[in-house]
Design brief:
Blueprint (H helix, E strand, L loop, with lengths): L15 H15 L6 E2 L11 H14 L15 H12 L11 E4 L2 H7 L10 E5 L3 H9 L6 E2 L2 E2 L2 E5 L17 E5 L11 H14 L2 E5 L25 E6 L1 H4 L7 E4 L5 E3 L5 E3 H12 L5 H9 L3 H27 L3 E4 L5 E5 L4 H12 L1 E2 L1 E2 L10 E5 L4 H15 L2
Parallel strand pairs: 1-15, 3-6, 3-7, 7-8, 8-9
Antiparallel strand pairs: 2-10, 4-5, 9-10, 11-12, 13-14, 14-17, 16-17
Length: 408
């Protein structure tokens, strides 16, 4: 008989954002008179940059002619986009990354989920807590954990991020093989300094560990002292894989384009302790299971790096960060401790009460959707996350509603 993967039974009943959608749907059905403002999931609300739209149109026109039509493209991405990424995102910041070390994909979520296929079943994995759920859930599905016990999966090393350490994970006290890091962080909005990333790289080199570095929100960093890539740290290309996305940077949440960087010098090890190049493994996996991002979408992504595209993307980032600063200030004025909202589009609020209870209060009394912190891990309990991705007018209204509820 056909049997299912038993590891799926270890997962929580549903995905965090599915739970939120169900609660919001139930509230809207019960209260159709309330205009709900959504500041929960990190979905952008502003249109694609005009430079990207123009590039899409040109590329679609090419697809309409036999002589300019494109069929299957290279699975790793077209050279024009890989070159633009290497030069503008890395080499301009003195990071030694070459175009053929970049793999274009349809989303950083997919890549951070799929990368774990490269690794052995019995590795020791460290994850921050709270953390983006995909890191944990995909390893649960793969069978690398035990069952959930008191809000945590047996077999994982949890790196606690709390108000006491400014939501920045400390180095593991024991040996681990695989480390997930995300900066600027989702959900806490915390950012890592150059010295902190240097310490992580040193740990990985000493322990022959690998860092999976999620930099999906690097474009929101405005402080020039903060690194925007782990490859700005000496020695990182030997021990780190980096993930990036155009979703929040340029509004590509519905257009779908991202990329993963796997340096050729980045190694893992076989059962005999011999070094194995992860670049070759990821290339094989990528080519076997992925047919590449469409040509028009890659042309649209390339346009982000044009002079016009740069200015337009900068405008989008500035707009959302204006929202973030406004939310952060209003929450601070209400007397709550906050993280994020500076160099990150998320505001992490220490409510000191049950996360889902606080979520429900804001939903039912203010008509505002947030994200309960407990959905990101045990250390997220007593917190909520507010996203800056909406119009400034709706953010203003949302904060006025929240302020009225929390001061009544």
């Amino acid at each position: 008989m056909i049997r299912v993967n038993p590891n799926f039974s270890k997962l929580q009943a549903s995905y965090l954002f599915s739970d939120i959608a169900k609660r919001v749907g139930a509230f809207q059905a019960a209260r159709p008179d309330v205009k709900v403002i959504k500041l929960g999931i990190g979905d952008v609300t502003r249109a694609l940059p005009p430079a990207c739209v123009a590039a899409l149109h040109r590329a679609v026109d090419e697809m309409a002619g036999d002589t300019t039509f494109r069929g299957y493209g290279p699975e790793q991405g077209y050279d024009f986009l890989r070159n633009a990424i290497a030069v503008n995102d890395y080499q301009s910041r003195h990071a030694d990354i070459q175009p053929d070390e970049i793999f274009v994909s349809d989303g950083a979520k997919c890549d951070t989920a799929n990368i774990q296929e490269l690794f052995a079943q019995d590795i020791t994995i460290a994850v921050p807590d709270p953390v983006y759920p995909v890191y944990v859930d995909t390893n649960v599905m793969a069978g690398r954990t035990g069952k959930m016990e008191q809000g945590r999966y047996a077999g994982l090393v949890y790196l606690e991020c709390t108000p006491d350490n400014d939501y920045l994970p400390k180095l593991p006290e024991t040996h681990v093989d695989l480390i997930y890091l995300c900066f600027p962080n989702n959900p806490t909005g915390a950012t890592a300094t150059r010295q902190q990333l240097t310490d992580w790289v040193a740990y990985a080199r000493e322990h022959k560990a690998l860092i999976l570095f999620d930099a999906a929100y690097e474009a929101f960093v405005s402080d020039p002292a903060l690194p925007r890539s782990i490859y700005e740290i000496e020695g990182a290309r030997d021990v780190a894989i980096e993930f990036r996305s155009f979703s929040k940077t340029a509004g590509f949440t519905g257009t779908r384009c991202a990329f993963t960087v796997v340096p050729k010098s980045c190694m893992a090890y076989d059962t005999e302790g011999h070094a194995v190049a992860l670049h070759a493994l990821w290339n094989r996996r990528h080519c076997t299971k992925f047919n590449g991002v469409s040509y028009p979408v890659q042309r649209a992504a390339e346009a982000i790096y044009s002079p016009e595209g740069r200015e337009q993307v900068k405008g989008l980032i500035t707009y959302y960060m204006k929202n973030a600063a406004f939310i952060r200030q209003r929450i601070h004025d209400l007397g709550y401790r906050v993280s994020g909202g500076v160099n990150a589009p998320y505001i992490w609020i220490h409510t000191q009460t049950d996360s889902w209870t606080f979520f429900d209060r804001l939903l039912t009394e203010a008509g505002v959707v947030t994200t309960p912190g407990s959905g990101f891990g045990a250390c997220g309990q007593g917190h909520i996350r507010i996203s800056a991705f909406n119009s400034f007018e709706k953010v203003e209204e949302a904060m006025a509603r929240i302020g009225k509820v929390l001061t009544s």
